[in-house]
Queue: 2 jobs
Job 1
Amino acid sequence: MRRRFYELHVNESSHLANQTVTTKAELWAIEAEILCLDPDTRVKVSLGRSAAIATSADRKDE
């Protein structure tokens, strides 16, 4: 499924696919940044930072 979103994104044929890939890239960047932290801290940081991205993505749909 991720590959299909990427293909649609690259072809610029779907606004939803573009938004999904962009949002996922932001979330993956957070995970890459916090990889060196201990598991409990990673969960806290990930939830805190990803919530803002998820909220922002929800607002783009309106």
Job 2
Amino acid sequence: MNHLLTATLAVRVPVNATGDLAEGAATVLARLDAVERVEETDVRGLQPGLNDTVVDLEVRLAVADDDAAAARREIESGVGVVGVETVVCEEEPTEAEPPAQPPPGVG
């Protein structure tokens, strides 16, 4: 089961990251164990540096952890995460999509 969270946070995106800064931030977050997938990113600010850019963003994440506080702790301690301002659980857990059923008479 997945839980959807909306988080306001800052992520360190390396200079050589592929894609734009939003994609780079999503890649950093997707590598975290707590994150199942990144649903949406909304860049709120940039802090350029010599070797990386800190991207402030609001992001919607699907996480496997059923405890928003535990998910926040895992995200805060993640590699590339500079800081977490807010984490809000959006909705009840959602089941993964069931596998497609074969047409009648097949199988």
